[in-house]
Specification:
globular; 8 helices; 8-stranded mixed sheet; alpha+beta; 18 strands; 448 residues
Length: 448
């Protein structure tokens, strides 16, 4: 028995519109949503961004690059689930071969950019949707991307109204304060690899954190919505919010043997600031562990994405980042901006550099997601507010995660191993040395 995809009914009209107006022999795009063990959900379809030079041929490299950019705009819990292809009936055999190549290429590119990997027991099926440009009939199949030799399996494609309107949302603010040494033999273009390697230990720390949801400790195997469902009037959807706090484990577990390493270093990369994270989870009896995992992955994604974006900008515009003779260079990473996705209960996001304006966000959302948004729909305040809510630092080297509730000024600082309850400090500090851009990237150069 194949998988079943429940799809927002707005996707059906969108697919019909782009097939009717494209004027091309083949139309490609992405399917965005969420997987679960029992069923999958598609919330959005996005046509591939048009190239300056139009062609009826499918440009695999262009589709993959578009998918990589779109994946950066998704909060926790949402992912690129596959691709669609609209073509004439006589191209149906060729279309299946194209879809297979695109599914595996897109998944490979997106996976490569992540700091985490799918577990073996998670869903590895990705959808390939073939649509007839004449009859609008759909043929839905899936491929197991874990197996490069897997064959297509049939799947059901069902439209539904208000699919994600009542999906629970999990939110948290996490302070990042990391120092990553840069080996002396590293070139500028290798800094992104240095950061990726330096973040591995922090990734394990985040993954081992315990979580408090709405002030309560919940068992990971419990249903997330147990005791939270309320009777709502007909045709009215109620979205359950969860404010999440991360607690660092008292003893950090690692599979690697701890060894001392002496390495010549030319400098230190410092990642510092507060990031606002969101995750959404379906309402089909979701488990606490699945919701928490989605939020943790959003924490990892947003830090990695900002670092990648900065280095991409650095390589494209090196003159804007070079300061001769400077011993310390500080660059604000792009801040996160959220936008509600019309017709759903979720938000998407984009990242805005210091020298950008709201119109730049609007342009990218239109270019990448084919969505028109107004400036007043952009929520640009979440990370500004959270960035000034910083708890006092301790001298303990491992106390580097602070979590703040989005709607309160009270902060919870992670406890060192020798924590004394009388030493807990809660409050708000507006430090002169802290920027309001959520995260700051610093490169400290050592003198000879």
């Amino acid at each position: 028995m194949g998988r079943t995809y429940f799809v927002e009914d707005s996707v059906e009209q969108y697919l019909q519109n782009i097939l009717d107006t494209s004027g091309k022999a083949c139309v490609t795009g992405l399917l965005i949503g969420q997987c679960s063990p029992q069923r999958d959900f598609v919330l959005l379809a996005v046509r591939t961004s048009p190239k300056e030079t139009q062609s009826d041929e499918v440009d695999e490299e262009w589709v993959v690059e578009h998918a990589t950019q779109v994946s950066r705009m998704l909060p926790g819990g949402l992912a690129v689930l596959g691709v669609f292809l609209g073509a004439a009936p006589e191209l149906s055999v060729q279309a299946q071969n194209i879809l297979r190549r695109l599914v595996f290429a897109v998944e490979k590119s997106i996976t490569k950019a992540r700091l985490w990997k799918l577990a073996n027991d998670e869903v590895h099926d990705r959808v390939a949707l073939n649509i007839s440009s004449e009859t609008k009939k759909v043929l839905c199949r899936t491929f197991d991307v874990k197996d490069p030799k897997s064959s297509a399996k049939p799947a059901d494609w069902k439209y539904q109204t208000g699919l994600s309107a009542s999906w629970p949302v999990l939110e948290c603010n996490v302070e990042v304060d990391l120092q990553i040494p840069v080996p002396a033999d590293s070139a500028n273009r290798e800094l992104d690899k240095c950061i990726e390697n330096g973040l591995k230990e922090w990734v394990r720390l985040i993954q081992q954190c315990s979580c408090i949801l709405n002030g309560k400790v919940m068992g990971l195997d419990k249903d997330l919505l147990d005791g939270t469902k309320k009777k709502a009037p007909p045709q009215q959807f109620v979205q359950q919010p969860f404010v999440v706090q991360f607690l660092r484990p008292s003893k950090f577990k690692t599979d690697d043997r701890s060894t001392a390493l002496v390495q010549k270093s030319s400098g230190t990369v410092v990642l510092k600031g507060v990031v606002h994270c969101k995750a959404y989870i379906h309402t089909n009896k979701p488990k606490v562990k699945d919701a928490v995992q989605a939020l943790k992955r959003d924490v990892l994604n947003t830090v990695a994405i900002r670092s990648q974006m900065l280095f991409e900008d650095f390589l494209l515009n090196p003159e804007g980042y070079t300061e001769k003779g400077a011993r310390t260079e500080e660059y604000p990473l792009p801040k996160r901006v959220f936008v509600p996705l019309a017709g759903t209960g979720v938000m998407i996001c984009d990242y805005m550099f210091k020298d950008e304006a709201p119109k730049d966000i609007q342009f990218r959302i239109k270019e990448l997601l084919d969505l028109d948004v107004k400036e007043d729909q952009l929520d640009m305040l979440l990370e500004i507010d959270s960035a000034i809510k910083l708890a006092p630092k301790t001298s303990h080297p491992q106390s580097n995660i602070v979590v703040a509730e989005p709607e309160t000024s009270q902060l919870l600082e992670m406890f060192p191993d020798d924590y004394n309850p009388m030493q807990l400090k809660v409050g708000v500090v507006i430090a002169a040395g802290v920027a309001l851009f959520a995260v700051v990237f610093s490169l400290l150069f050592f003198s000879d």
